[in-house]
């Protein structure tokens, strides 16, 4: 019985030693936060003050109201293109009743990493099932 355990353990160690280590593919480098943002600002306001002063400030500033959250007490705006996001955020933080101003960020939920040589095999094995799925492929260097 001890010989079987020793043999099984030795076999596991040998099989583990034969596998190649997983490649670490670093995420793409971004020059600044502008590449990870949509250019919009998400602004939350105090429920007692209401949205009126904020909506008026949006109009006066020349920004575009994109969306109004009803239950969250917030709005999404797009500042004018000639104004940096940081300046617009600083401006709207001074409006009466504003609680927070955040940049709308783009964050991928998942990313599928495949090497370029595996793409034909994936296409053949999927038989068209991947047409409606969004997959991000990144080649290993």
Helix-and-strand structural type: alpha+beta
Low-confidence stretches: 30-34, 125-141
Side-by-side strand order of the widest sheet: 2-3-1-4
Number of helices: 4
Shape, per Cα inertia axes: elongated
User: Can you write the helix and strand succession as a string?
Assistant: HEHEEHEH
Number of strands: 4
Characterize the main sheet: 4 strands, antiparallel
CATH domain class name of the largest domain? Alpha Beta
How would you describe the overall organization of this protein?
The protein has 141 residues and is of the alpha+beta class. It has two domains: 73 residues, Peptidase S8 propeptide/proteinase inhibitor I9 (Alpha-Beta Plaits); 34 residues, no CATH class. Helix content is 31%, strand content 20%. The protein contains four helices and four strands. It has a four-stranded antiparallel beta sheet with strand order 2-3-1-4, with helices on one face. The protein is elongated. The C terminus is likely disordered.
